[in-house]
């Protein structure tokens, strides 16, 4: 059965019971894939919020629980700010509602359990055991919500000598080996320009949650997902890890170059940089013709990729000298239509002015409490809902909690215990 079809048939939560009839419900043709799926989001900073934002983009209702008074740490991360709103926070918290609950207080724990009973998914990124101490561990939630898909995102997993450490992207990228292979060939290790370990972990969690929802749809039962920064980043080492595990070849830094393919790197032009890759001998021949260096095609040093790797220094020296003779626009024009992978190194200004980026609508207007602004909002193969607000301040309303069909007594109890103290 097609994935989209299964997602559209995922049952909603009603009063803590699973509506698994096995029959698709009638609805509009443009129904969102995760419509009626409710996510209780106990995450903060990046990996967890990125996962839940992607679920929200597919139509899920995401309820973000934050600390009373201060909220998610990233609300204060900046500059830049738009009004009082951190652009960092806005980048990973669209399509969410937000409430403030003190989960260290027994009353707050009770509220979270009530909310969990009305949701399909709970996502958290606390140090292992922390929520268990509060009475909100998987077994605790499973007792009141056996249907729930409970996803834990940690730094280093639930067990092991590092499990009790807090996990931050830069530290995990160092421990996982990513930083060891990132940076100039003869220079120091470099932190990647964006938090790739956090983002990769968020995507792994997002995919695991989607699979968990499918399993829940089939069985009516929930499950516990364990996703961590270290394992996610090591999984992303792919061929670098395989080179060591299979051939015992230690990894190293290559700058923009590739350890197993030559040429495949950035070349300096008169006014910028151009990245060009030739993954086979045919592509290498095309590159040589474009650069007016046909003599390199039959040069015994460069006849195969293996030889080009062995004679990297000589070949890159020749190619670099030729690229440095022309402006970036000249090379872009010459490579156009050649079938060779190529592209300029863009600044952020250039990225969002790139014709292909405009064609793909990779940025779009989103409504915020400081007015409309552009946000990065890439398409997915299924569906993206654009423009949902990031939560400005936690609010408690009759309408919001009626969506969960809670009794009026619970609403009054909730209002007594909830603090909405964001400035």
UniProtKB/TrEMBL annotation:
Catalytically driven reaction(s): hexanedioate + glutaryl-CoA = hexanedioyl-CoA + glutarate; glutarate + succinyl-CoA = glutaryl-CoA + succinate; itaconate + glutaryl-CoA = itaconyl-CoA + glutarate; itaconate + succinyl-CoA = itaconyl-CoA + succinate
Keywords of this entry: Acetylation, Mitochondrion, Transferase, Transit peptide
UniProt source species: Ornithorhynchus anatinus (Duckbill platypus)
InterPro entries cross-referenced by the UniProt entry: CoA-transferase_III_domain (IPR050483), CoA-Trfase_fam_III (IPR003673), CoA-Trfase_III_dom3_sf (IPR044855), CoA-Trfase_III_dom_1_sf (IPR023606)
GO cellular component annotations of the record: mitochondrion
Gene coding for it: SUGCT
The EC number(s) this enzyme carries: 2.8.3.13
PANTHER family reported for this sequence: SUCCINATE--HYDROXYMETHYLGLUTARATE COA-TRANSFERASE
Protein name: Succinyl-CoA:glutarate CoA-transferase
UniProt-recorded Gene Ontology molecular function terms: succinate-hydroxymethylglutarate CoA-transferase activity
Subcellular location: Mitochondrion
Function according to Swiss-Prot or TrEMBL: Coenzyme A (CoA) transferase that reversibly catalyzes the transfer of a CoA moiety from a dicarboxyl-CoA to a dicarboxylate in a metabolite recycling process. Displays preference for succinyl-CoA and glutarate-CoA as dicarboxyl-CoA donors and glutarate, succinate, adipate/hexanedioate, itaconate and 3-hydroxy-3-methylglutarate as dicarboxylate acceptors. Acts on intermediates or end products of lysine and tryptophan degradation pathway, in particular catalyzes succinyl-CoA-dependent reesterification of free glutarate into glutaryl-CoA to prevent renal excretion of glutarate.
């Amino acid at each position: 059965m097609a994935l989209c079809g299964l997602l559209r048939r995922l049952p909603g939560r009603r009063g803590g019971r699973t509506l698994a009839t096995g029959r698709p419900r009638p609805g509009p043709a443009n129904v969102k894939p995760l419509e009626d799926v409710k996510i209780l989001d106990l995450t903060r900073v990046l990996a967890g919020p990125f996962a839940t934002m992607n679920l929200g983009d597919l139509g899920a209702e995401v309820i973000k629980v934050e600390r009373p008074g201060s909220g998610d740490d990233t609300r204060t991360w900046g500059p830049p700010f738009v009004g009082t709103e951190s652009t960092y926070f806005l980048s990973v918290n669209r399509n969410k509602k937000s409430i403030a609950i003190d989960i260290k207080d027994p009353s707050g724990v009770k509220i979270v359990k009530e909310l969990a009973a009305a949701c399909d998914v709970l996502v958290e990124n606390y140090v292992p055991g922390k929520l268990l101490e509060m009475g909100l561990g998987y077994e605790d939630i499973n007792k009141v919500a056996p249907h729930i898909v409970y996803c834990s995102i940690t730094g280093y997993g639930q067990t092991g000598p590092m499990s009790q450490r807090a996990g931050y992207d830069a530290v995990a990228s160092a421990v996982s080996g990513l930083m060891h292979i990132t940076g100039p060939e003869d220079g120091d290790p470099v932190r990647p320009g964006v938090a790739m370990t956090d983002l990769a972990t968020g995507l792994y969690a997002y995919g695991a949650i989607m699979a968990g929802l499918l399993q829940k749809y089939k069985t009516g039962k929930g499950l516990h997902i364990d996703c961590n920064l270290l394992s996610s980043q090591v999984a992303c080492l792919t061929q670098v890890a395989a080179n060591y595990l299979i051939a015992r070849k230690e990894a190293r830094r290559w700058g923009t170059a590739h350890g197993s393919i030559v040429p495949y790197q950035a070349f300096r032009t008169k006014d910028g940089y151009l990245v060009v890759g030739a993954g086979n001998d045919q592509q290498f021949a095309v590159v040589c013709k474009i650069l007016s260096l046909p003599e390199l095609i039959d040069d015994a040093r460069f006849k195969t990729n293996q030889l080009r790797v062995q004679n990297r220094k000589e070949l890159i020296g020749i190619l670099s000298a030729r690229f440095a003779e022309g402006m970036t626009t000249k090379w872009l024009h010459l490579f156009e239509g050649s079938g060779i992978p190529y592209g300029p190194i863009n600044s952020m200004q250039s990225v969002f002015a790139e014709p292909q980026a405009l064609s793909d609508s990779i940025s779009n207007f989103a409504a915020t409490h400081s007015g409309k602004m552009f946000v990065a909002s890439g398409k997915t193969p299924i569906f993206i809902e654009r423009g949902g607000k990031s939560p400005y301040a936690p609010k408690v309303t009759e309408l919001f909690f009626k969506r969960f069909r809670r009794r009026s007594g619970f609403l009054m109890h909730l209002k007594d215990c909830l603090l909405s103290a964001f400035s």
